[in-house]
Amino acid sequence: MRPWVAAILYAVLGAITFVVCFPLLWAISTSLKPKDEIFRWPPTLWPENITFESYHELLFGGSVASAPGAGVPPSAYFLTWFANSIIVSVGSTIISITVATLAAYSLTRFRFWGQRSVPYIAILGYMVPSVIFVFPMFLTMVSLELTDTLFSLILGYVCITLPFCLWLMWAFFRGVPIEIEEAALVDGASRLQVFRQIVLPVALPGIIAASIFSLIVSWNDYLFGRVFMNSMENLPLTVGVMHFFDGTHVDWGLMMASSVLMTLPMAILFGFMQRHLVAGFGAGAVKG
Amino acid sequence: MTDVVVQGLSKSFGSNNVLKALDLRVPSRQFVTLLGPSGCGKTTLLRLIAGLEKATAGEIRFGERRVDTLPPGERNIAMVFQSYALYPTMDVARNIGYGLEVRRTPKAERQAKIGAVAKVLEIAHLLLRKPKQLSGGQRQRVALGRAMARRPDIFLMDEPLSNLDAKLRAAMRGELRRFHLDLGTTTVYVTHDQLEAMTMSDLVVVMNEGVVQQIGTPEEVYGRPANLFVAGFIGTPPMNLIPAQVKDDVLTVAGTPLPVPLPPGAPSEVVLGVRPQDVSMAKPGDAGAIPGKVWMVELIGSERLIEVEIAPKIRVTAEVRASHRAAIDDVVAVRPDPGHVHLFDPSTGRALTA
């Protein structure tokens, strides 16, 4: 490549990277600024005086448990919301992945009526925007008396993540040769051993990919949390942090610190999972 | 010490009858090959013996033990798959030892067995690798090692050499035969390659359309084919199958009487089978030689195939020395060796024996 071509290429790529990363950088920067510096004009790109007061308020600003009732600042709920988000994302992911893995396995390994159409119908369901069925689902939750419970959110997230997880696992299992299972059966393994010791390890990259998808969808959801939940102590993070807008003013420091803390778990998760995701692919059991 | 007995075995997939009331006995310690064109049911038969398919009717016994109701893991068999089917997430050692592992063989004993097998197969240096880091031939050996480690009663092999290149395949043929002679384990081997069947087997089972056509030693199926299918399927180039007439105890092909001994009660129309190697070239008018015109000449190395049209659309191939020259449209004659001809009844396809 000619030097000037490379220079232009790098300049363009650098610009795109900056644009993509800027909101996150700005969030980090704002979260570390003292309150008076946040609104200063012209703005500072990087805080002159770094402070962790926003983080301190979120993480150690007292908890609802110690001082319940009215007049509690929204920031006191932060850890509760965080825990709620973790419970519903992890809970819905575990259900989605378990059901999707078992369903996809049976769809590729056993013969029954509708075997071919189920994955396609599922993916069709995933293509419908969730706004369309959030209200029917809310009404269902009302009749089940599940509104304002974390369980309703878990069910909601399973509904939107399961179809795609099923599709992903189905595509994955279709690529796993049945001979390796037959070989294990001949070797004397039970059906369960075959599934646990042969199939699951092979399917691990698919399971990780589907888990990441499901975690991200449920962690980032706003709609279901907004519609299903009322009480302050039951909100997921995404909905909860909106209480840092209180009509008259916005606490940008808290808002940005929350955003950074919200991003962290997913970023860490990605860092760990990525290696597994790549390492598992390209298994060459069969003629390669 | 296990023979395999198959009685009245049928298998249908929907309306497709793949095996039709099949009977077969594989004697203990023998290497038996199921040979046939694709779709003849040979792999289905193997999978039924393995327990990977359920029979529609009939029974399978290993010695005195009835096994067709047992799951594959309780039949004490080992199977080598065409695709090798190694466990992709396990290293070579665990692949070989997996059968022992699920049977809860103590670790020390397991490792000793893995080591012994790896030594025989010369894959001891590969034990820590994953299947994807192996070449085709190495994977083949691991698959074989996995089968050998458990000391099964019966080896089942489903075209295990078909994914190897020609040179490696030839080498592995010999090795497989050696292993069989050393271990003496009853082996059922599926192939569509007659060279593998002829070179490796004690017994060849020729199958077509779900029916056993002939069971015999390689010499028998080659030298005394039981019917037209076996006659046409075994041997390269394939046997000439020529329509012939019997009149007054004399066999006539395209108007030429041939000095072939006839079995008693031969029908008036028969099929004469003769291998190209047993056909020699002659001059028109020679006794016992059928006149015709050269239709095609092919050189196949040290031999030459001369195809002679003796009547419209009826051609006879002779395999002669490469030094024998012939040109297309030459007027020649072909003489079948009367001592090496086979006669078949065209209505039943069966061989007519004297």
TrEMBL record, chain A:
Domain spans labelled ABC transmembrane type-1: 82-273
Example GO biological process: transmembrane transport
Q: Name one GO cellular component term.
A: plasma membrane
Keyword entries, A-Z: Cell membrane, Membrane, Transmembrane, Transmembrane helix, Transport
- Pfam families documented for this protein: BPD_transp_1
Instruction: Tell me the superkingdom of the source.
Output: Bacteria
Q: Which residues cross the membrane?
A: 7-28, 81-105, 117-138, 150-173, 194-219, 252-272
Record's bilayer topology term: Multi-pass membrane protein
Q: Which residues form the signal peptide?
A: none
Q: Membrane: is it a keyword of this entry?
A: yes
Q: What is its main location?
A: membrane
User: Where's it found, cell-wise?
Assistant: Cell membrane
Sequence similarity: Belongs to the binding-protein-dependent transport system permease family.
Q: What is this protein called?
A: Carbohydrate ABC transporter permease
Q: Which organism is it from?
A: Neoroseomonas eburnea
From TrEMBL, chain B:
List GO terms (cellular component aspect): ATP-binding cassette (ABC) transporter complex, substrate-binding subunit-containing
Q: Mind listing the GO molecular function terms for this protein?
A: ABC-type transporter activity; ATP binding; ATP hydrolysis activity
Q: Does the keyword Membrane apply?
A: yes
SMART domains found in the cross-reference section: AAA
Entries under InterPro entries matching the protein: AAA+_ATPase, ABC_transporter-like_ATP-bd, ABC_transporter-like_CS, ABC_transpr_MalK-like, ABC_transpr_MalK/UgpC-like, Mo/tungstate-bd_C_term_dom, NA-bd_OB-fold, P-loop_NTPase
What the entry lists under Pfam families is as follows: ABC_tran, TOBE_2
Gene3D superfamilies to which the protein is assigned, alphabetical: 2.40.50.100, Nucleic acid-binding proteins, P-loop containing nucleotide triphosphate hydrolases
Domain (ABC transporter): give its ranges: 4-234
Keywords, A to Z, come to:
ATP-binding, Cell membrane, Membrane, Nucleotide-binding, Translocase, Transport
What's a BP term from Gene Ontology annotated to this protein? carbohydrate transport
The domain of life is: Bacteria
**Family (UniProt):** Belongs to the ABC transporter superfamily.
- Name under which the protein is recorded: ABC transporter ATP-binding protein
Q: Lineage in the entry?
A: Bacteria, Pseudomonadati, Pseudomonadota, Alphaproteobacteria, Acetobacterales
